[in-house]
Amino acid sequence: MVWSLSFDPLLPLWALIAGAVITLLLTSLSGFLSLRGWVLRGIAMALLLLALGNPAIEREDREPLSSVVALVVDKSQSQRLAGRETTTDETAAEIQNRIEALNGFDLRVLEARNSGSGNGTELFQTLSNGLADVPPERVGGAIIISDGQIHDLPESVASLGFDAPVHGLITGTADERDRRIVLDKAPRFGLVGSEQTVSLTVVDQGQGTGPGDAVRLTVKRDGDVITERTARTGEKIDIPVGIAHGGDNIFEFEAEPLADELTTLNNRAVVTIDGIRENLRVLLVSGSPHAGERTWRNLLKSDASVDLVHFTILRPPEKQDGTPINQLSLIAFPTRELFSVKIDEFDLIIFDRYVRRGVLPMLYFDNIARYVQDGGAVLLAGGPDYAEGGSLYRTPLAPILPARPTGTVLEQPYHATLAELGERHPVTRGLPGSEQDPPAWSRWFRAVDTELDKGQTLMSGPSDTPLLVLNREGEGRVAMLLSDHVWLWARGFEGGGPHVPLLRRLAHWLMQEPDLEEEALSVSMRGSELIVERQTLGESVSNATIVAPTGEQTDITLTEQQPGLWTGSLPVTETGLFTVTEGDMSTLIHVGPQNPREYTDVLSTADLLDPISEATGGATQRLRDIGGDLDVPRVVSMQQSASYAGNGWIGLKTTEASVLNGVDRYPLLIGLLGLAVLLGAISLTWYREGR
To answer: Rounded to 5 degrees, what are φ and ψ at 514?
Structure first.
């Protein structure tokens, strides 16, 4: 209960002031003239003015509110090291029990986890969010259980938003030591085949460490060791790395462990360099003229990532018409330069309806076969030329060609259809119109009859004859399109067909584009989820295993989204290198920044939090001494004080906050009581003056 006196005037304030002035003047004049009863007359007038002021006694019915205390529990990645997580959980449970045993306190347990943004451990942001709906006068204090590595320390106590003690309970011990790698410079992009430089420093921290020690450093690319070298702690070292392929090249730099160190997680640094290909070089050789001769040229010229060299053979060497050489407008076919000197500079060679006419000596076909075995690519787009005597199959290319011509050309209308394997292969999977039967694209009218010696049939022609065949030879690849009627799709005949995605995927598969691999495991980030994709020609896949940076292992189930494409996802909050494995395939992905703040320094410390605790009257102390038992301080309730901590105890502030339930008002000079007082005063005045 709270009692107070209040006024609710019946007249305006100026009228009461004027009445008070008049009362004072009349009383003073009566006193000056020594009139009988002047004191009682002044009292009567004052009581009248007081009655017009309407005084009253108010009684407030207030209910005291509990003090809100925040227990901030650090659940970041560094808290999982060296038994800190167990210490944290035991301490949090004990503190929670002790606070709940006190009267007048409302405990809020706030867990701070890594957001995956790379900002490190943000305990004070968690504290601010957890107390956002609490008035500052109700906050009784905050207790932080952490290893002391906090990355959002407030600039001043005023920015906390409340006046109460902040206590720190530090996990870990003072004798910790650790080795880590600091990245000084790391490129983000690099041309495929080029060499980039990564600069880093190996740093040792803690008891018994110092600069200058020799350390063995292992360098890996995409999980494979590429070099080992020696570095010295505290000294920056430049390491050249080669960009082997397009897309993400993931380089790991791992320093050998330090004896008795806290963790080896930060002994590794990961750099992801995006490999950028220079324009792909394609050689297109057109032989027999036909209606679709420009289909390949138009497609490849429209691709900005392709540099095309195109030759059309219009005049074979045996043609003699008497025209002088100096009057010919044709460019001689530079066979030696293309197929001997510079053949290895091309990523793909396409023969479009090529017929042997003595333009290319047999020796050059040997060069082309070797070029494929060494990692090159050849595409044969054939028509009747492949079934005739001038077929490329009757050259040294025959050993690398998967389909053998029978000599028959099938001339009949048919729909090119996806073979069973083609429905799963990334080159032909999901082609627009393939989901219908027959497919929603135009018919073709010619195909070369062949017998398959090797390779994979992705599309079938009339009577299920092979129409599109792919094969790997040595380090290279070969593809055969056994019809010259793909131009009907390009011209829009009967509605056309998906010639652009088909031919473009085919060309990029031949040039070993990673996204078009038949057997591939890839991983990417979509928001806060890790997305795993498994591409396979098989009928099923096993569960994928994800190993987090802290070593935690999780199995996820992959589900088939499309024929041959299986996906799964896992929400992640950690930063660092994740390893994904499915069967005998594995891949890597680095989540977050290359230098995550969470692992910049993992040694436990009280130095960062101690200034905040001292400024608020709290204390920061370790929970364990070196080799000692857990020492959780007592928690006591205290009134306003300059210090809220002592030997073996920490204090929480009891606030005076309350909620108003109601107010009772008792007027003093209104009603019968007021009338009686006024009548009494007037009666005394009359009585005194009458004597």
So the answer is: -60, -35
Are 268 and 202 spatial neighbours (Cβ–Cβ below 8 Å)? no
Residue among 573, 569, 521, 533 at smallest CA distance from 552: 573
Residue 648's SS3 state is coil
For residue 137, give the 3-state DSSP assignment.
Answer: helix
| Distances 256 to 180, 213, 266, 498 between C-alpha atoms, Å | 10, 12, 11, 54
- List, for residues 646-664, the tens digit of each pLDDT value: 988 999 998 876 665 666 6
Q: What is the CA radius of gyration of the chain?
A: 44
What is the per-residue pLDDT for 328?
Answer: 47
Identify the pLDDT of residue 685: 65
In the three-class reduction of DSSP (H, G, I as helix; E, B as strand; rest coil), residue 374 is classed as coil
Q: Are 189 and 162 in contact (CB under 8 A)?
A: no
C-alpha dist (Å) from residue 65 to 57, 99, 135, 141, 473:
25, 16, 11, 15, 80
Q: Is 7 exposed, middle or buried (0-12, 13-18, 19+ CB in 10 A)?
A: exposed
- Distance, in Å, from the CA atom of 116 to the CA atom of 110, rounded to the nearest integer, reads 18
The span from the first CA to the last CA of the chain, in angstroms, equals 48
CA dist., res. 134 & res. 157, Å (int): 18
The pLDDT tens digits for 1-58 are 556 676 777 778 787 778 777 777 877 777 777 666 667 667 777 767 767 777 777 7
For the record, the structure tokens of 151 come out as 């990355």
Question: Which secondary-structure segment (H or E) carries 503?
Answer: helix 499-510
Tell me 507's DSSP state.
H
Dist CA 655 CA 638 (whole Å): 9
Count of CB atoms within 10 A of residue 257's CB? 12
Q: State mean pLDDT over 228-254.
A: 89
Name residues whose C-beta falls within 8 Å of residue 532's C-beta, 6 or more positions apart in sequence: 521, 522, 523, 544, 546, 556, 558, 567, 568, 569, 570, 580, 582
The candidate with the shortest Cα–Cα distance to 442, out of 376, 504, 479, 493, is: 493
| Contact by Cβ (8 Å): 330, 531 | no
The token pair at 302 is 């429209």
Place of tokens 């959002």: 152
Mapped onto helix, strand or coil, the DSSP state of residue 260 is coil
| Preceding peptide of 438 cis, ω within 30° | yes
Which residues lie below 8 Å from residue 46, measured CB to CB, with a gap of 6+?
23
Give 561-605 pLDDT, tens digit per residue: 999 999 999 998 777 788 899 988 888 888 877 667 777 788 889
Q: In terms of DSSP bridges, do strands 189-191 and 268-276 run parallel, antiparallel, or are they unpaired?
A: parallel
DSSP secondary structure of 582-619: ETTEEEEEEES-SS-GGGT--S--STTTHHHHHHHT--
Cβ pair 629, 295 in contact under 8 A: no
Separation of alpha carbons 241 and 217, rounded Å: 14
Instruction: Give CA 177 to chain center in angstroms.
Output: 30
CA atoms within 13 A on the CB side of 333: 21
What's the sign of the alpha-carbon dihedral 488, 491, 494, 499? Answer: positive
Residue 580's pLDDT is what? 93
Please report the DSSP string for 468-495 in residue order: EEEEEETTEEEEEE--S-THHHHTTGGG
- Name the residue with higher pLDDT: 612 or 56: 612
Among 31, 27, 28, 32, smallest CA distance to 43 is for 27
